[in-house]
What we know:
GO terms for molecular function: ribonuclease III activity; RNA binding. Pfam families: dsrm. One of its GO terms (biological process) is RNA processing. The structure is a single chain. By secondary structure, the chain is mainly alpha-helical. The protein is 54% helix and 7% strand. A 3-stranded antiparallel sheet has the order 1-2-3, covered by helices on one side. Helix 2 (40-47) packs across helix 3 (67-89). It starts with a helix and ends in a 6-residue tail after the last helix.
Amino acid sequence: MSESSTHIQRLLRFLTSPTQEKHIEIDNFTWPPLPPITDPALRKAAITHKSAYNVVPVGVAGEFVNYEKSAHVGDALLHLFVTCLLQDMYPSADKHMATDLRAKLVNRHINSAISIHYLLPEQVITGRSVGPALRASIKETGEMFEAHLGGLFYYYVRCDHNPGFNSAQQTPPCWRSSDTDEQDTKEGNVVPGIATRMISHGQAFDGLCKFLGPLFTSLAQALYDPTEINRQKLLELSVEGKSELHTLLSMRRVPIPTCETERVWPDWMMERKGEHGMIWRSRVRVVWQNGQIFEEEGVGQNTKEAGNIAAYLVLQQIKAVMRTSNPRRRW
């Protein structure tokens, strides 16, 4: 197994919750060939770091391109592709489940492992002093993969990979200026400007999907947690969990418990910045009439969800004990 495959394997083990019993194996992971960017200008834009132009005079530095903008486009395309892929693969997954799974698939660590496998860091043009540091950076190597996707996308837009593109034209329709678009529309030509650009972009995205599909389908299958569906069912069952627990405790004259709540990071979350991606965890502890303690915790997107789940789980414990002590009564 290659070094990058081993790295992907370690990432998948980390991204999977430690409580999950599913054993992930992708030893036979198949890497699709990386489509090349054969357009010289686009390839240069996709592999050149801004440090390569540190020696360029300030007055002309703006004329030189670097891969930041290409990576910006590639990042957006990757998010769009994975969002659509997950919808096709797991249509029953709700918004939160799909968002969590997408976050596991689209992040700098996965991007970096992919980038290293395809030797993209070795191709990047940098300034002399920063090259080794950039190639060792997870953030930068991940961005190099996004930059390649952005460059590949516009390569598909510009070249004859697109059906209907006339390679005899010096400037593809999707790259024409707004003045040219307006003139074409006035003269009644076939090129209607923005509409044509969007069609070309759609065809280019289809070409990109042919590469991304085999790559991310396997990763999605490895990271998908079917027990998450059970969590969604639990969420539905526990909508009134806290209210029902309080009602039962009041009837039994048992003190209403306090709900301890804290905001935590999911186990699989690697990129922890600010509060984005954090979840809520609540813990409910009930001391029953005979001194028996019932304690559970719940996790949710907000305090209400987490508190209801924890209360519902405690309520089920109490009902199970009550059924045992009085089997004739329906609880």
